[in-house]
Each structure stands twice: as C-alpha cells, then as structure tokens.
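As a next step, the fold was encoded as tokens, giving this record:
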Amino acid sequence: MSDKLLFADLKVIDMSSWIAAPVAATMLADFGAQVIKIEPPEAGDGYRNFALMASTPTSDVNYTWQMDNRNKRSLALNLKTLTLVNNGSRRRSHRACFRNASSYQATNWFKLVFNHT
C-alpha cells in the first residue's frame, strides 16, 4: 500500500473567502493537495478578523482562521494592479503574465505562484 495521499499531485489556487469554499480547499489540502491561499494585500481575507467579533468566544488564538486555512500556504496578490506581495517585503510586478488571457500566460502565472518562495 502506498503512503501517498489521494490528492498529492493536485495544485489548487484558493481565492475564496469566508467558510464554505475555503473549507473545501482545506479538505483538498488535508488529502495532500498543494494549496495556495490568495489574499488581498493589506487587510487579507476578511475572515481573519472574525475571531475579534463580540459574538465569538475569547481566545488568544484565532481558531476559526486556523481551522479553515490549515495546510495552506498564503500569498498576498493585488489583482487590481497585478502585483505579487511576499510578506510585505518584496514586490514584483507581473503584468506580462496577464496582458492577454491566453492559456500560455495563465500557465506562467500558475508556475510563478507555485514556484515562489
């Protein structure tokens, strides 16, 4: 029997927010998929602030965020200006990958995201 997880060869870009779709991507990650969570720069996914609401239990840990986004890597990507942001310290413009919505350029963007360190 192989120790390889079911979705070990699957690569997923998670551009969703709030519970349902992020949880679907989390389930794929739980079974081995390589998931990149894309968030807008500055504020990030709005769900990051859910634990701060008065209706949620007080905790030192943002458990809702950690549960819904476990096993994912996160990347801030400004889709309006098409700028990749890495931990707020480096910015690189990738307009060339988006000028024409050809499959070749989409493939280059996909490679950029999954090979980015």
